Amino acid sequence: QASFKIQQDFLNKNIVITAGGTQENLDPVRYLTNRSSGKMGYALAKVAQKRGANVTLISGVTKLSPPVGIEVKKVITTADMATTVKIAFEKADIMIMAAAVSDYRVANPAKQKVKKDNDHWLVDLVKNEDILKSLGKLKGKQILVGFAAETENLIANASKKMLAKNLDLLVANDVSRNDIGFGTDENEVTLLQPNQDAIQLKRANKDKIADKILDTILKIKN
Ligand code: CTP
Ligand code: CA
Fold first, then answer.
1. Distance between CA atoms of 97 and 16, rounded to whole angstroms?
2. Where are the annotated segments for Phosphopantothenate--cysteine ligase (predicted)?
């Protein structure tokens, strides 16, 4: 009889993972959001737990069902996510920001439903906190991992983000391709680390990509 042993190489490690997109209200019935499905972050949570980690999943809005046995904290807005993430970060050994965080929020969301009385509706957007950048400043012994979604100059733009946010690892995602990335079950990413050669991962399903990301995290010495 064959027996499979899953390697428990993340035993006793506290991993906090964010996933999905945040939403910003325009009025009580409408919101702004992005194309994130949450699949990459949920795959990371599932695989990390299999490998023995204590996983906290901080989830924006997704259509995915919560992975069995994982503590999920649900958030909606970027401000909600920022508060929840900062608390969890204190006890984290590893923090992975896979969420697609809304960069802007509506300056003055309407208290009542906006009626279609006007031909134009000009919306004033103000910039949200960059949660990952804040974590980069707060960072102690934690390993800090971010994602970058780019439609052009993938490596150059992603490297800038890695340095600006004080990351130990950045997962660079080319979101201009619609066969991979947003909403799909497969992904093809490049892993960037300070002062190291880029690692180009082959196209694979998101569970496999999650495993490779976790393999790389294990090798980081802080
Ligand atoms: N991020 C964050 N808080 C924000 C925006 C982004 O924590 N307000 C995180 C994302 O979770 C991701 C990383 O920052 O891990 C990069 O997100 P991305 O959208 O690619 O880059 P930005 O820094 O937001 O820059 P831009 O959207 O202008 O490319
Ligand atoms: Ca952004």
1. 8
2. 15-222
- Tell me the backbone φ, ψ of residue 135, rounded to 5 degrees: -65, -35
Summarised one tens digit per residue, pLDDT across range 68-98 is 999 999 999 999 999 999 999 999 999 999 9
Report which ligand 1 atom has the smallest distance to the Cα of 146: 15
Based on the residue annotation, tell me whether 178 is a catalytic residue of this protein: no
The residue whose C-alpha atom lies closest to atom 27 belonging to ligand 1 is 103
Distances (CA, A) of 209 to 41, 57, 124, 162, 220: 11, 18, 38, 19, 17
The full set of domains in the chain, from first to last, is 14-102+123-218 (3.40.50.10300)
Ligand nearest to the CA of 157: 1
| DSSP SS3 for 191 | strand
* Ligand-binding site membership of 161 (annotated): yes
pTM to 2 decimals?
A: 0.96
| pLDDT over 80 at 6, yes or no | no
Spatial separation of the C-alpha atoms in residues 42 and 185, rounded to whole Å: 11
- Ligand lying closest to the C-alpha of residue 147: 1
CA–chain centroid gap for 216, Å, is 17
Q: Backbone phi, then psi, for 37, in 5-degree steps?
A: -95, -20
Rounded CA-CA distance 194/175 in Å is 23
Tell whether ligand 1 has an atom less than 6 A from the beta carbon of residue 161. yes
